[in-house]
Design brief:
Layout lengths: L32 H4 L3 H23 L9 H19 L3
């Protein structure tokens, strides 16, 4: 009588399971709060840029204090300044 040969059990896994005994795992410790906080000058600069943008737009429509007459370039500059300030504040922590 012939000896039975063992057959491998088929699993759904297509790649071999890897063991990394020397690695601690996927968990990484959170950053300390001192590294998460933005410097105070970021908020001050962002708000200053936004105020300058609003002033550019308001003074453009009032036709005062800005060189030249009514111009859409001042409006565009004000909107860009507001956008830059807003983007700076979205990354502020």
């Amino acid at each position: 009588m012939a000896a039975k040969t063992k057959t491998k059990k088929r699993t759904k896994r297509t790649t071999k399971k890897r063991n990394y005994p020397d690695l601690p795992g996927r968990y990484t410790t959170p950053l300390p709060k001192s590294l998460k906080q933005s410097p105070k000058w970021v908020a001050i600069v962002a708000l200053g840029i936004m105020i300058i943008g609003v002033l550019m737009m308001v003074l453009n429509f009032m036709n005062t204090l800005l060189p030249g007459a009514f111009s859409y370039w001042y409006l565009l500059g004000g909107l860009v300044a507001l956008m830059i300030g807003f983007l700076m504040l979205t990354n502020y922590k």
